[in-house]
Batch of 2 targets.
Target 1
Amino acid sequence: MHIRIDLMALATTTSLFLGACAQTPAPGNAPARGPVAWEEIAALPIPPADHRTEYGDGPLQFGELRLPRGAGPHPVAVIIHGGCWRSQYDLQHISHASDALSHAGIATWTIEYRRLGNPGGGWPGTFQDVARGTDHLRLLAERFQLDLSRVALVGHSAGGHLALWLAARGNLPAQSPLYSPDPLPIRGVVALAGITDLRTYGAGTGSCNAAVVPLLGGTPDEVPDRYAQASPIELLPLRAPQRLLHGTRDPIVPVEQSQHFAARATSLGDDAEVWLIDGAGHFDPIAPFAPAWTRVEEAVRSLLSVR
């Protein structure tokens, strides 16, 4: 496992994301501030998407496409939001990150999906939606000049879990309800404070930890096959580069989720790196105004060979 640590502004306060489910900052002389709070994200005006497109017939089976300036074909980041897989948190809060990446020369396809509390959310609908939404890029590519040879998956928190799972779905058995016969090829995954191990995370005592059992419809003892098919650490190796960015002051997803995953992935031959963001909390990696954002953009651009 490769771990890179730089210094960033020290944090003195932290904030919990109630019901929401990331390792190096760029050096510099930015003023010190505490970790980004959920309220700061929620208060931002929502940047409009260029296009909203349905990938299915359900009301939550759609995505938002944001395009960079200039002629394509454009590299693409598939963006998957977090929120503990719960219905009260939708794609709006990650739209700022999607918009910032599009201004950095990367098309962003931000997927909405059924979640806990929505009809059909949880097992298997949540997983089937993000898979179908990702593969829908094939239908968008010609119309919007997208470069399907340069696609990266980017997810935050529970969305980080889903991004890693999407990269791993080629390892699923054909009899699985989550199986995709021809997954869209990807260049790599950027997991921001990602939940990587559903068994260990679900054993925690936080409000987000408590969402794992309803997500899969039972405990590991009750539905072991579902955990084996839904937990990214159990589907390694991914055979695609992984960059796991994690704040050292994250109170919602322990940094060990990224560290243990990368250690296991590396032992199996994957290119997996953990980038610790010193002093950052859970929401810094999706806040374009935070010092941590330069590292997020660097990770995505490097996987997509964007200069």
Target 2
Amino acid sequence: MLQPGDRFTIVLDQDNSLSRATYESGLLNTHILKRNEDGNYSVIRQAVPLEYRVERLSGVIESSLYGAFAELGEEPKLIHAYADIFASKIDFNTETRTGDTFELLVEKYYKGEVFVGYGKILVAAYKKQDVEYQGYHFASENTPSGYFDSNGVALGTWFIRSPIPFGRVTSRFTMRRKHPVDGVVRPHLGVDLAAPRGTPIMATAEGKVEYIGRKGGFGKTIILRHHGGYQTYYGHLNGYKKGLKNGSTVQQKDIIAYVGSTGVSTGPHLDYRIKYNGVFKNPFGIKFKAKTVLQDEELALYLQSSARIAELFNADTGDKTIQVRNITLTEDHTISFL
């Protein structure tokens, strides 16, 4: 697909016939069309020399995780990728505290001195006063890409903690809350997460759409039904993901809707609720089981892989860049970026 800023050159021969054409799209995609000796044309993708670096990033929470990462000068996509690793363990809306620390090793690619993009986060750590979380990246032929603790237990659980990674909690789960609009004291059986109108909302677990439409004071609402007797509620929505309807299947972390202020609401926010076997529960008070626990050969492979990463992670070099090598991006060599 053509993009603004793409460049092309055309070379004509003495008969004004096309001899060669070059098309450049971004830093990594240069395609060359050339005429062969037999008069036919062929297209090749030009090999691109890159520098691969493993960099160590760390910081201290003063106000928020987002703010701490921003001070490092990193792009938002890295912040979201880091938060996503711990999405089942930590709610970064409510559980961050001043003085918490974070650290990670991340792959970065450069063309010359120009930053091209992030590869994988190899290892991530988040430390509170009383607990430290660590996750090592692992993937094999039998295990999809994910993050695991030192014992091979997946950090990902059947439910993530929050459908909005960086929302602001304005109302918690309680049996007595004075409603901000009508002033009546009654239970608030969910959590309100304030965020700008249009902020994407994720499904917190795999499930099916049980209800989509307006629902009284909740305005535009989605209800998902999940395995094990769970339902999740998403209220005051601005709109729904295009194509979503009753009976649609959604995967964990799929975007299903967008923050709004429909129904009885004082401003853009999400009212998020969980019901288990017909009873509403505190969404931030439920502990869910890990999706995967590595065993046997997969565990052995993981322990070897994580040991190599840990050696880098624990190397006290004092340098931000702890590994560098040159690679060449060819048609047969692809790179996955965040």
